[in-house]
Amino acid sequence: MEPPRVLITGASRGIGRATMRRLRKDGYQPIGVARQTPDDLEDGEQFRACDLADPDATGRLVTELLADGPFYGLVNNAAMSPTTSLEDTSAEDMNQAQALNVMAPLLLAQGLVPGMRKQGRGRIVNMSSRAALGKVNRTAYSATKAALIGMTRTWALELAAAGITVNAVAPGPVDTELFRSSSRADDPRTIALKKAVPVKRVAEPEELAHVVAFLLDDLSGFITGQTLHVDGGLTISAVGL
Q: What is the pLDDT of residue 5?
């Protein structure tokens, strides 16, 4: 029997890269997608280069991947995060964030769900963010990550009877390239954010990969439509940043 296939977007670095490695270790057949193939691919790892912000390219990718069989899981992790204030947020910022953070997950789900239905089971994990609750200078990012939570809840209702679960993971600060580029270490807000985390540290990508693996597990079939905040207690602390 072939290992369950799982498509992971944004898999060239950070959370996506850690998730790809974790799922391979757990016996899945992960297939990573990002604009560029990472330099540290291991023997046997499957990876496809694709600009998921391009709907046509995404459609072609789905067609090519499905030629080799259906998927058990989809991890929508790819994202972009404009760091602009309210006054400086442009239509281009919103459109770019919408294309990658919202439309790509939608197109991928539309492509993979029919195969999940035929199998009678499936898992979709959407990587949202604590920023969906609000974050300074993240208008486009927070808006699209909130939209992803809304889609998660709706898809969960539509797909539950088919044996397909849909959940969101909302990380707090994670030590990834995206976090380091959008939250400079010397920025007072970044310093304050780290101090505000009750566990007094940021997460490692492998900790988020562990959460994704949990939600993909067969025994997680009664969990759907949920948003799991993995933020070291930040969302329940008295300080919201």
A: 98
Reported as a pLDDT band with limits 50, 70 and 90, residue 238 is low
Active-site choice (28, 71, 72, 141): 141
pLDDT digits (tens, 9 = 90+) for 156-168: 999 999 999 999 9
pTM (2 d.p.): 0.93
Clarify whether 141 is annotated catalytic. yes
Contact by Cβ (8 Å): 53, 99:
yes
